[in-house]
Specification:
Layout (H helix, E strand, L loop, with lengths): L3 E2 L2 H5 L8 E4 L9 H10 L4 E4 L11 H5 L3 E6 L6 H8 L4 E4 L2 H13 L3 E4 L13 E4 L2 E7 L3 E12 L4 E2 L8 H6 L1 E12 L18 E4 L22
Parallel strand pairs: 1-12, 2-3, 2-9, 3-4, 4-5, 9-11, 11-12
Antiparallel strand pairs: 6-8, 7-8, 9-10
Length: 238
C-alpha cells in the first residue's frame, strides 16, 4: 500500500501534539526537511523537545520553530550558527542538552535498533558525564548514555518509492538515516518519488519498514549557511 501523501499538512495530520519529542534530520542546512519543518511551524504545536544535530540558522531550517516560541528543549551537538538560539538559552527560555556529536548519532541509532542504553568513553571526566552512571571495562571508565526514540521523525530524502524506501544524496545523508530509524512515526519529504522497484534493493539506505509517510518536496533553492568565494583566476592566453 502506498505511503505517499498529497502535501505536508496532510502528512503531519494526527501525529503532532504539544510536548512531543521531534527528531529532525540534516546537518546545518544540508539535508534538512524544510517543507515539513514549515508545516510543523504552521500547525502551531508547542513545548517541543527537538532532537537534531543543530537548530539551523536564524530564520532558516529549525530556526523558524525557535522564532515561533514552539521549542521548549533541544538535544543537539552544535548550535553555533543561530543567534536566537543563544539568546533564548541565555535568557532561560530554552533548555539544552548538549551531546558529543558521535554520542548523539549513536543515541539515535540505538533508539532505532531497540537498544535502550549503551556505554561510551566519550565525555568521561567532563560536564557531559555529570549525573550519569559510570562503569569500568578492561581498565577504562565509561558512561551510560540512553537511546533516543522520538514521537515523530522528519527526514529529507533524495529519492523515495511508494513503499517508503529512501536514498540520500551526498552529504544530505548525514543524520537522516539514524533519525529515520529512531521515530515511532517517520515522515520523509523526497525530491523524487518513484515506483516500487525503481530503487535497486542494494541502493536503499533507509528501508520502508521505518517510514510511515512520504511527501513530495517542493522545488526551491537550497540554502547554504556560509558561502566563501574567491575570484576565478584569469586563464593565461595561448
Amino acid at each position: 500500500m502506498s505511503v505517499v501523501y498529497t502535501d505536508t499538512a496532510t502528512a503531519l495530520d494526527g501525529v503532532l501534539f504539544d510536548g512531543m519529542t521531534l527528531a529532525v534530520g540534516g546537518f546545518g542546512l544540508s539535508g534538512v526537511p524544510v517543507d515539513l519543518i514549515e508545516a510543523v511551524r504552521d500547525s502551531g504545536v508547542k513545548d517541543l523537545t527537538v532532537v537534531s544535530n543543530n537548530m539551523g540558522v536564524d530564520g532558516k531550517g529549525l530556526g523558524i520553530l525557535l522564532e515561533g516560541g514552539q521549542v521548549r528543549k533541544v538535544i543537539a551537538s552544535y548550535v553555533g550558527e543561530n543567534a536566537l538560539f543563544a539568546q533564548q538559552y541565555l535568557s532561560g527560555a530554552l533548555d539544552i542538552e548538549f551531546n558529543p556529536q558521535g554520542t548523539l548519532a549513536e543515541r539515535l541509532r540505538a533508539g532505532g535498533a531497540g537498544i535502550p542504553a549503551f556505554y561510551t568513553a566519550t565525555g568521561v571526566g567532563t560536564e557531559v558525564a555529570e549525573g550519569k552512571p559510570h562503569a569500568d571495562f578492561e581498565g577504562r571508565t565509561y558512561i551510560l548514555e540512553r537511546g533516543i526514540v522520538a514521537d515523530v521523525s522528519l527526514v529529507r530524502a533524495h529519492r523515495a518509492d511508494t513503499d517508503g524506501n529512501l536514498t540520500y544524496r551526498y552529504t544530505a545523508r548525514n543524520f537522516n538515516p539514524v533519525v529515520a530509524a529512531a521515530g515511532k512515526i517517520t515522515i520523509a519529504e523526497a525530491e523524487e518519488i518513484v515506483g516500487i522497484g525503481d530503487i535497486a534493493p542494494d541502493a536503499v539506505t533507509t528501508p520502508g519498514v521505518y517510514v510511515q509517510r512520504v511527501v513530495q518536496a517542493r522545488a526551491r533553492v537550497k540554502d547554504i549557511e556560509q558561502r566563501t568565494v574567491r575570484p576565478r583566476p584569469v586563464s593565461a592566453s595561448v
